[in-house]
Amino acid sequence: MKLRAIHLVLICSALGGGVAYRLLKTAPEPLESPAPVPVTQEEPEEIVEIPMLNAQSATPLLLKSPPRPEPVTLASTPPAIKPALKRTALTPRKLTLQEQQEAARARYWLNVKNRFNRQRQNLDQEQNPARRIPLIQSMAQHVRFDTLNAIDWATNLADPEERRIAMEAINKSALVGIGAKLEMDATGYPKIQETTPMSAVGSTGMVEPGDYIVGMDDGNGDPTYFDGLSTAQIVKLLHGKAGSEIRLLMERKSEHGGAPQVFDVPVHRSLIVIQPPF
């Protein structure tokens, strides 16, 4: 009996060890514990004491200051901005006296041209014959500003009676003379600067720019000398009736400083042709 009991104990011990071995072999491996997360200690918020009193306790209240904004770090430095160029207004150049005179002369002749064109438009729109006649007579005065254009306009009027009225008004308004532009110098005599187109004195072929007109003889046998006369007085003497004949007393300076050449030029007064500079 004792021997059998010992055998049972040994068998139970062997079986218990096998079960324990199998249990240990099949048990799951323990899981790895996660790495500890570092805990950062936040900066304590500043406590700002504001002297505000509680209505009940009359003790100062402590208010928390707002949180500080986190600093912003740029990934890269922004490109430098070029300063804008300062724009300066252009100062207009001051015109010289000669340029101002030329600009004023150009405006004058442009106004003359525009005025005549407006008169032509008014005449084309006017159908009443009684109103057309004074308008034609007024337009005939344009002969003193643009002689050839005024004559061309008058000769192209459709009505023969209106053409006659226009030519009569042109003959009354036109300047009649020798057809020369004069200038006064230190000598006190008018000097021929240039001759006008189709001028009476220029058609003789006897005068040239630079010659002096010292006087004239209108056929009465008593010459008139221009010494001491003004430009307006001389021009008035040279003007006259178209077709009338006068004799000009001319003087031409010598190129070598010798005695001036004196000669006479017979001229028939004619219509002075004036042309605008445009």
In short:
35% of the residues lie in helices and 18% in strands. It is an alpha+beta fold and 278 residues long. Among the domains are: 107-173, no CATH class; 178-269, Pdz3 Domain, CATH 2.30.42.10.
Describe the protein in words.
- It is a single chain.
- With 278 residues, the protein is of the alpha+beta class.
- Among the domains are: 67 residues, no CATH class; 92 residues, Roll (Pdz3 Domain), CATH 2.30.42.
- It contains 6 helices and 10 strands.
- A 4-stranded antiparallel sheet has the order 7-6-8-9, with no helix packed on it.
- Helix 3 runs parallel beside helix 5 and helix 4 runs antiparallel to helix 5.
- The longest helix has 29 residues.
- It is flat.
**SSE succession:** HEEHHHHEEEEEHEEE
What is the CA–CA distance across the termini? 159 Å
Helix content: 25-40%
Largest sheet: 4 strands, antiparallel
Strand percentage lies at: 15-25%
The whole-number mean of residue pLDDT values reads: 78
**Low-pLDDT runs:** 23-28, 44-63
Task: Name the CATH architecture of one domain.
Answer: Roll
Supply the number of helical segments: 6
